[in-house]
Amino acid sequence: MRMQGFHNYAGRETSLAFNKTLVITVLAVILGACQSTTQLSKPHAQTREQPLVTAEQLSNRERSELYSAILAAELEIGKEKFAEALSHYLYALSILPQKDIALEAIALAQRERDGLAMVNAAETWLKIEPNNQEALEAAILGNLMLFDQLPQAQEIAIERALEHTQMLRQSYPSELDTYRALSALNELYLNSSTLMLWHRLLRESVDQPLAWTLLADGYLLAAAVSPEQDFMNKAEQSINVALQRDPQFAPAIDLKVKFLVQTEQRNRVVSFLQSLILDDLTNYAAHEALAQWFYQAREYDRALRAAQLWAKHAEDPEKNPDLLYLMAASYYGNEDFAAAHNTFLKLLDFDFKRNLVLFYCGDTGERIERYNQAQVCYRAVEDGQYWTPSQQRLAELMLANGEAEAMLARLDRFATGGSPEQQEQSIVLKGQILQQLTRDLEALEWVARFINQERVSTVVPLAHFRLLFRMNPDNDWVEYATSIAERLPAELNLNWYLQLAGHLANREQAANGIAVLEAKLSEEPNNKELLYARALMRHDNQEPEKMIAELKALYAQDQDNPNVQNALGYSLADANQELDYALELIQSAREKLPNNGAVLDSLGWVYYRLGQLDKAEAALKVALANETNTEVLAHYLEVLIENQKRDDAIAILQKTWRDVQDDQYIQALVEKYQLTIEAAQ
Fold this sequence. Notes:
By secondary structure, the chain is mainly α.
């Protein structure tokens, strides 16, 4: 589990960009820093020639240049000229060494893959805070980038990366914490330099599991994206050595499990973990891994038994949030909601997945009829993905308790004083509650009040649509779409039309959905998103020939788009037309989206149309594992029946009947093959 370490400052990667005017300066910084590598505890304090400048010590001219540089950087960012912005921040940093300026420079350096600039900014930060973990991480990453980018600086860069790695290692209380921090570098920047760093670390600590495990983690990640078997072999060897050094080193155990899964040896995982436990009954890390494995397999009884042994051998089990959470979740999976509730309450003493824990504290409180406690937990959820469901559950409890006005007042406060997401969700939820109270016009007016330029998504206008559709499904939706669009920010305009059209199609008004899209197409006739959405909506409007024609026209403009390739290929297969061409299109889409369930479904369907039933069955089985929807299920069942496996199809249908019996695709399948309801139940 990645808990800390190696921040992705940039958020996304862009092309490599160097500011050549900085090369000589930054190499001087590196060389100067490398002259003092024998003292690892506080090397930067030893190399200072003069005290750092503070903001108060700046002259008026320096202060003016500083502000000008920062302003120029912000303007360049607005123009998406990130390399230029980076130059300005580095100049500002040379005037005033300050953490906030260094952070801005590091973020841009990571975005631009500019190792020189990242080292410069990180070294400046370390002069201010010699042991700051984020600064050390940035220095390591910058030096690794330099190793890959400047052949003449490789030896210096790797030695500096190793020095900072050892300093970072000293800053953590345990090797487990160190691993969690350093292993994040493998995911953020896995390159030849990264593996070289772990080899160098290995030279200095060959008898300890840390470097072996970091190396194994790097090789496993490399093996996942490379066909070279050598990576997998090296990963296995490194894991085995790490476990020899310390059979209780949790990251090495986790990597062995990952290796077995990655090499399709899942059946060996339990025996591997049990062998560690037999060798040492106190191996709490193996008990933990076994409990996690059973939990992920939804074997909750076995997960609880393993967790109890984990608790027996772990230090201070009542203070171990990972252990308590696994037990709470396993109790929940076993539907022992009282035990789950009590364990979730214990977890509230820790700063651990707080909003999730609070939500399930409320959920289990409801299930065991501790409604007051449930309300307390739901109210305490602060933000994130659990905030909205918590407010919905809280609203249900308060409505049942006759506290509708209090809940409406609560939502009023969030609608104007919460985060942007909370504001929008509160507006929508209050509209829903007013509707439940049969105050429809008040609900409509309430939501309409907030359709304005302050919106950050289409959540509020779509809620307004749902309320209005319930009251007047025969409304003029084209005029409505235009009037709402005029009130929203321009950046939401396209998404509004697309989503409104989709909502209409889902309410059996595909023709109106197409009309909405065409109204927007009159303004943007070449917009590919609108053209693609309209073509797909032809299917709902029973216009297969128009769908194929429009997809062919779109494909002529965008032949490398896998979504267009897949849609056209599937449409042809569904219409039983140009099957060889359809197969070619879908195979091309699959090369770009190899694990996409929709593409695999199309592949299976075209094989079915071609009469290649075994290939169709294999493709649809994988598609169903990746795309669990009823249309894919119906395709798979149809192929099974046509492939003389009717009993297998019925057995699958029996298991899923409760959830799928009302679906249009399943109903059509049952009717086509005369599968009686009794046979399917």
